[in-house]
Amino acid sequence: MKKIFKKAIVYILMLEARAVLWKYKPKIVAVTGSVGKTTTKDTIYTVLSSAFFVRKSEKSFNSEIGVPLSILGVQNGGNNPVIWFKNIFEGLVLILFKNHYPMWLVLEVGADKPGDIEYIAKWLKPDIAVITRFAEIPAHVEYFESPKDVIEEKKKLVEYMQKDGFLILNFDDKQVFEIKEEYNRKTVTYGMEDGADIKGSNNLFLYEDKKVVGITFKANQNGTSIPVNIKGSLGVQHIYPALSAFAVGFSQGLNLVSMSQALSSDHKSQPGRMKLIDGINNSTIIDDSYNSSPLAVRWALRTVKEIETSGRKIAVLGDMMELGKYTSDEHKKIGNLTADVCDVLIAVGLRSKSTIEGAVESGMNEKNILHFEDSVLAGEYMKNFVKEGDVILVKGSRWAMRMERVVERIMEHPEKADELLVR
Questions:
Q1: pLDDT at position 140
Q2: Are 235 and 274 in contact (CB under 8 A)?
Q3: Mean pLDDT for the chain?
Q4: Domains in the chain, please, with CATH?
């Protein structure tokens, strides 16, 4: 009965969303890729909001139900039928009566299984499609025949976009860039390599009192070079989204200076996405607990490697889910890299035992490796383990591992947990 109810609700909300798009005709930016979708969506929103009335999808609303909810501007009802019926009513109000509706929608579109993106893209028909990056072994791959099939599913967004729309591609990812040749669309590229239309360079860490507090880089376009500072977050995980946002803005005639100012002053990173949080004993937490995949962990570890600190570098890594037959090998590879980057590995979960194997295989001292069954046990142990100057990366798959529970136990101000952590 619940399944029938859910299917009916999803169908009704989808029809309402389509009617709203037909009535108000907003411009639509749709973001997909293997990593960085939510941060990219949020950053594009910040840049476009400096010039237009914009709405973005909340959190990671990127599914067959999340996208209609974002278009209608209503919340997820969960298991509460009253909220779902209220959502339907509010959708009808939008359709029947004139409303001050956004000029732009910035939406995230994901694929958990075959057909997910095609189902949405057929009726969404975005004006701008943004492709972030394709992972060698992407999340949710266990539900597809192969990693290539995941990529083919994500490309459906381009297939169904407006013919006169703009395609925004990551120049540095050759699989993404090849889409330019496959589809005849106006294209703007972004990346850190020479040849990108919007190019990032000179990326450095920002330090205050010998503690890392953010990143700085230059955005370059047609001979113009503008500095961009992002405080409170780290890594190329935030540089690439910024460059993609500049590419979107450029396609709409916005100038680099105003976009940089908007990003430096108005952008706030989402919880659990390479977010810097003050830790106990004057330590620094890099909270990347929102979710995990092999590519995302590698990016995070490479960021940690480059940080200057007086203390230890500690990786608290939970299981990576939905990798299917690639599970053991991918965890081992992460262990290999961790041994090269960190002084201490704290592995959490059953699958992370393979991470330990990889770390030991690459020469990490077993005395510097700990294993816990769940994130609560790991967090409780770390209360008496963290020392001054430590830099602590926390990452793992979202719902299975709940790695934010580690962060909550070692953050300097746990009373701010609801504000700063994934919820």
A1: 79
A2: yes
A3: 95
A4: 2-266 (3.40.1190.10), 275-420 (3.90.190.20)
